[in-house]
Design brief:
Blueprint (H helix, E strand, L loop, with lengths): L7 E5 L3 H12 L3 E5 L3 H20 L5 H9 L1 E4 L10 E4 L5 H14 L5 E4 L6 H5 L8 E5 L9 E6 L5 H13 L3 E6 L6 H17 L5 H12 L5 H8 L1 H15 L8 H8 L16
Parallel strand pairs: 1-2, 1-4, 2-3, 4-5, 5-6, 7-8
Antiparallel strand pairs: 6-7
Helix pairs in contact: 1-2, 7-10
Bound molecules: acetoacetyl-coenzyme A.
């Protein structure tokens, strides 16, 4: 299917990533249906989209009229069945294979046969997600980066059975959304997380060894390498639960100690210290 035939984009999940994906799709002129599992999460997600668009207006990236038009394109729902109206659905639920497989099986049942089913997974296999559908050639990875409206990359992940036509749709979508594409084979962590995850886990190991304070590690990376955020600030930003899911998934496949989550990370997630979104991670947020 060509991009000009895509009118309605579905987004499964309205968390940090889902809300950003819904926002950029609405701003690009698509009708967007975004689904959450309960009223409270849906309201929070829609509030996050509105706040992000308001910030874009404040920064002069969007006019007030464009914001209202984009907002008018977004419809929240609690029903998976509403994805029957979609030509493309992007899944952005929790980074857990059984949960994602269930979502893909349901989408396959509900969506029209021409619809492309994409996952925003940051580490899991696209081929495996495709295997629970009757349309593996239309299953693809669209990995966005947080914050989605700001980060200019779209990592497209090609499963073993993904068709060339589906990849072409991904490239065209990226152009509409003003994102630059990189293409990765379906291997754990793709390009970005294959390199990012060992680096972040090593920062925790450095802290646990007592080599330096987390503030100094962050300052060293920010000022010594010109990264916008040091590793601890970035981990809090990504979410420690998400980081742990990704690390565990990568360790499971590679069995390489570079991807083994340090115990401190696991304990922090168990304590509910998930980073910025929960008010506490490595740092504390007001
Ligand atoms: N819509 C459009 N533009 C927006 C916006 C919005 N909602 N909010 C902010 N912006 C723009 C601003 O106008 C500004 O642009 P200019 O420089 O042209 O003025 C730019 O975005 C930066 O915004 P701020 O000044 O508000 O913020 P900042 O300079 O403090 O940067 C940041 C914030 C972009 C988050 C920066 O700290 C950063 O890049 N951090 C690293 C983020 C990162 O690495 N993300 C990837 C995480 S990994 C991941 O997502 C994938 C995974 O699988 C784990």
């Amino acid at each position: 299917m060509a991009l000009q035939n895509v009118r309605t984009v579905g987004v499964v999940g309205c968390g940090l990533m889902g809300s950003g994906i819904a926002e950029v799709c609405a701003r690009a002129g698509f009708q967007v249906i975004v689904r959450e599992v309960n009223e409270e999460l849906l309201r929070k997600g829609l509030d996050r989209i509105r706040a992000s668009m308001a910030k874009a207006v404040e920064r002069g990236k969007l006019s007030a009229a464009e914001m209202e038009a984009a907002w008018g394109h977004i419809r929240g729902t609690l029903r998976m069945e509403d994805f029957a109206a979609c030509d493309l659905v992007i899944e952005a639920v929790v980074e857990d294979m059984p949960t994602k497989k269930q979502v893909f099986a349901e989408l396959d049942r509900i969506c029209p046969p021409h619809a492309v089913l994409a996952s925003n997974t940051s580490s899991l296999s696209i081929t495996e997600l495709g295997s629970v559908t009757r349309r593996p050639e239309k299953v693809i990875g669209f990995h966005f980066f947080n914050p989605v409206p700001v980060m200019p990359l779209l990592e497209i992940v090609i499963g073993l059975q993904t068709a060339e036509e589906t990849v072409a749709l991904g490239r065209a979508l990226a152009e509409r959304l003003n994102k630059t594409v990189v293409i990765s084979k379906d291997r754990p962590g793709f390009i970005v997380n294959r390199l990012l995850i060992p680096y972040l886990l090593d920062a925790i190991r450095l802290l646990e060894e007592g080599v330096a304070t987390m503030e100094d590690i962050d300052t060293a990376i920010r000022l010594g390498l010109n990264h916008p955020m040091g590793p601890f600030t970035l981990m809090d930003f990504v979410g420690l639960d998400t980081l742990l899911f990704i690390a565990d998934a990568m360790f499971e496949e590679f069995k390489d100690p570079r991807y083994a989550a340090p115990p401190l990370l696991r304990r922090m997630v168990a304590a509910g210290w998930l980073g910025r979104k929960s008010g506490k991670g490595f740092y504390t947020y007001a």
